[in-house]
Amino acid sequence: MNTATARLSARGLVKRFGSTTALAGVDVDLAGGESLAVMGPSGSGKSTLLHCLAGILLPDSGTVALDGTEVGGLSDRERSLLRRKHYGFVFQFGQLLSELPAIENVALPAMLLGTPRREATDLAGRWLGSLGLAGMEARRPGELSGGQAQRVAVARALITGPAVVFADEPTGALDQSTGHDVMRILTETTKAAGASLVVVTHDAQVADWCDRRIEVRDGLVRQAEAAR
User: Fold this and answer.
1) Are residues 59 and 72 in contact, defined by beta-carbon separation less than 8 angstroms?
2) In whole angstroms, what is the distance from residue 120 CA to residue 116 CA?
3) pLDDT tens across 88-99, in order?
4) pTM for this one?
């Protein structure tokens, strides 16, 4: 892929934690609307790669650029704003706020960007409805099944119209059938919204839902192939 046409591009990423090298010079390109699975065994560096791509961690060397803007050149405040506006996140255990109902969990990112509460909750309700959760808007996370909670997390990730959604082991806490359903929804909704998707997983069946996969071992990309 031409770096100039990539939505998200990383070059020569190196990240160390003490004497451990988590990333040893990684290049990644992600096109607009493309889904990418990042695979590898525990400790291979795949989660560190996601955190660097998302601007949560800064690499010791190398660059990450979103639509041509170098993330490492931004201040802490600017990177935080970039994550709020242009990135969405889905985590293994959802990380929903237990005290808030589903509709407010989804609306919260939009409200943090200044969207009026009524407008944000209306939009959140539409997202929940589109993901098969109509009638569950008032339920708190503890009143939802694992699959339903992850659908809420997907809606929360997409409500701000992000450029990229990052999903870290999004099916890790689910049974196989429910996990496949969540991956179908995640890949279909991100593509329909025009967002790119990065999925960190150790499960080849989860990776098969993505357009392409890379394998990280010992901090390096060892393999790249079409996932389907």
Assistant:
1) yes
2) 6
3) 999 877 689 999
4) 0.92
